[in-house]
Design a protein that fits this description.
- By secondary structure, the protein is an alpha+beta fold.
- It has one domain.
- Helix content is 38%, strand content 31%.
- The chain contains 1 helix and 6 strands.
- The strands form 2 sheets. A 4-stranded antiparallel sheet has the order 3-4-5-6.
- A hairpin with a 7-residue loop joins strand 3 and strand 4.
Length: 134
């Protein structure tokens, strides 16, 4: 709103904005909005990563518990997903022999089991355990 004066000294009040005020306000919006959008995107991205770091260890432990309950003859290298309950999350199990000179013959009966949980092939979480087979 602009207050002006006529030549005779009386005051004039004009309702509306000047072109300069509009240009300044648009300039401020042009500077502030991209920063707000960037901050919002980072918040969403951080939330997704935090969600992964909460859920992935639980899913990996669940898969490891299923492996530990089954007989070792039924366990093999395999992979899959967690279904509709956890879309985007996949798992893989890798079983390998342990090679160690220190353990000697015991190493022949020892298996290394790795469980890896991934989210959209971007984030991964892995846990490892060893199992003695006799």
């Amino acid at each position: 709103m602009t207050i002006g004066f006529y030549k005779n000294g009386s005051r004039r009040i004009s309702n509306g904005f000047t072109l300069l005020e509009i240009i300044v306000s648009i300039s401020i919006i042009a500077v502030v909005l991209p920063a707000i959008y960037r901050m919002h995107f980072q918040t969403i991205s951080t939330n997704q990563v935090a969600r992964f770091h909460v859920i992935a260890p639980l899913l990996a432990q669940k898969r490891m518990a299923l492996i530990e309950r089954t007989s070792f003859a039924d366990v093999a290298n395999e992979s899959g997903d967690f279904g509709d309950n956890f879309p985007g999350f996949t798992w893989s199990v890798s079983i390998s022999d342990v090679e160690s000179e220190i353990l000697g013959n015991v190493a022949n009966d020892l298996k290394k089991i790795d469980v890896t949980v991934s989210f959209n092939d971007e984030l991964t979480y892995s846990i490892r355990t060893y199992r003695l087979i006799r």
